[in-house]
Amino acid sequence: MEEIRRVIAPYERILLLGCGTCMTVCGAGGEHEVSFLHSALRVAQARSSDGIHSFLEYTVKRQCDFEFLDLLVDKVNEADAILSLGCGIGVQVLAERFPDVPVLPGVNTSFMGMTKEWGVWDERCAACGDCRLAETAGICPITRCTKGILNGPCAGTKNGKCEANKDMDCAWVLIYKRLEKLQQLEKMRRYYPPRNFRVIPRPRRIVIKADVEQGEDNG
Amino acid sequence: MANSLFEEKLNTDGFLVTTEIGPPKGADVSEMVHHIDLLKDKVDAINVTDNQSSVMRFPSLGGCLLVRECGGEPIIQITCRDRNRLAIQADLLLAYSRGIKNVLCLTGDSVDVGDHKEAKPVFDLDSVQLLRMAREMESGKDMGGSELRGVPQFCLGASVHPEADFIEPQLIKFEKKVAAGAQFFQTQGIFDIASLRRFMQYASQFNVKILAGIIVLSSARMARYMNDNVPGIIVSQAIIDELADVEKGKGLQRGIEIAARLIKTVKEEKLCHGVHIMAVGNESVVPDILEVGELISMPG
Amino acid sequence: MNVGNKSYSESRLERSPDHSLMPPCQFACPLHMEIGAYVDLVAQGKIMEALQVIRDGNPFPSICAYVCTHPCEDACRRGQVDKPIAIRALKRFAVEFGGDRMIGAEAETKHEEKVAIVGSGPAGLACAYYLRKLGYPVTIFEAYTKLGGMLRVGIPQYRLPREVVDTEVQRLVNMGVEIKANTRIISLDLLFDIGYKAVFITVGAHQSLRMGIDGEESPGVIDGATFLREVNLGLKPSLGEEVAVVGGGNVAMDAARAAVRLDAKKVSILYRRTRQEMPADPREIEQALEEGIDIVYLVAPTRIKRENGRLNVTCVRMELGEPDGSGRQRPIPIKDSEFSEEFDTLIAAIGQAPRTPSDFGVRLGRGSTIQVDPITLTTNRAGVFAGGDAVTGPATVTQALASGRQAAFRIDDYLQHTYPLVNKEAEKTLSGELLPKTVEMIKKIERVEPPSLALEARAKDFGTVELVYGWEEAINEARRCLRCGMGAEILFQDKCATCLTCLRICPYHVPYLDKGGTIQIPPDQCQACGICVAECPAKAIVLRKPYDRRHVDEELEHALKSAAESKSKPLIIGFCCQYGLFGTGALASLWRESKAGIWIVPVLCVAKLEEGHILRAFEMGGEGVFIAGCGEQCSRENTAFWVLQRVEKVRRALFQIGLEPERLQTFNLRASEGDAAEALDNFIGLIGRLCLASVIKQEVRS
Question: Closest approach of chain A CAs to the CA of B216, in angstroms?
Answer without folding.
Answer: 19
